[in-house]
Design a protein that fits this description.
Order of helices and strands: EHEEHHEHHEHHE
Largest sheet: 4 strands, antiparallel
Strand content: 15-25%
Number of strands: 6
Number of helices: 7
Strand order of the largest sheet: 1-6-2-3
Length: 162
C-alpha cells in the first residue's frame, strides 16, 4: 500500500470553518485516516507534517544562514512573534512556529520588547522585518525561484492511501 496523489490543485486551507468542512468531506469520501495533505518531492508524496520540517522550517534556516542581520534584528527587537493574517482570518500559522523552532534548535532567545509581526495583514505590519520574514518573501529551500508561500500553496496536494 502507498499514497496516491489524486488532486494536485487543492488551494489554500482557509479559515477554521472551511478547513474543517473540507476535512469532513474527505473523511466521508475516502474514510477517516485514509487521506493526507502533502507535497510531491523528488517524485514521492511527503505528508504535510514532514514537509513542515523539510521545506518550511528549512527555508527559514537557509534564510537566517544567508541573512544573519535579519536574525540579529529579530532577536534584538522582538519579545513575542505573531502572525497577523492568521489571527485575523483563523488561518493556519506556519511562519511563527517555524521561526520559533529555529530559535529553539539554535538555543536563541528573543531579547527585545516588541510584538513583531511575521507577515502582514491588509498591507499593515509592525516592523520592516515583518515583510522580510514573511513567507511571501522567504525563498523556498527546494525551489529557490519560488517564495515559500507560493510553493506551499501551489504545490499542495491531496493523496489517498491505497
Amino acid at each position: 500500500m502507498t499514497w496516491k496523489v489524486i488532486d494536485r490543485k487543492i488551494g489554500r486551507a482557509g479559515g477554521v470553518k472551511r478547513r474543517e468542512a473540507r476535512q469532513r468531506d474527505w473523511d466521508k469520501k475516502y474514510g477517516e485516516g485514509n487521506w493526507a495533505i502533502g507535497y510531491v518531492i523528488d517524485g514521492e508524496f511527503v505528508d504535510q507534517d514532514t514537509a513542515l520540517d523539510t521545506i518550511y522550517y528549512q527555508s527559514y534556516v537557509e534564510h537566517f544562514e544567508n541573512n544573519q542581520h535579519d536574525l540579529r534584528e529579530l532577536v534584538t527587537l522582538a519579545k513575542v512573534l505573531r502572525n497577523p493574517h492568521a489571527e485575523a482570518t483563523t488561518g493556519v500559522d506556519l511562519q511563527v512556529p517555524a521561526i520559533m523552532e529555529y530559535l529553539k534548535r539554535h538555543e536563541i532567545t528573543l531579547e527585545g520588547e516588541d510584538v513583531v509581526d511575521i507577515g502582514t495583514w491588509q498591507g499593515q505590519c509592525s516592523h520592516p522585518i515583518s515583510v522580510r520574514l514573511s513567507p511571501l518573501t522567504i525563498r523556498c529551500c527546494i525551489k529557490s525561484k519560488m517564495t515559500l508561500e507560493n510553493f506551499w500553496q501551489s504545490k499542495k496536494c491531496l493523496a489517498i492511501w491505497e
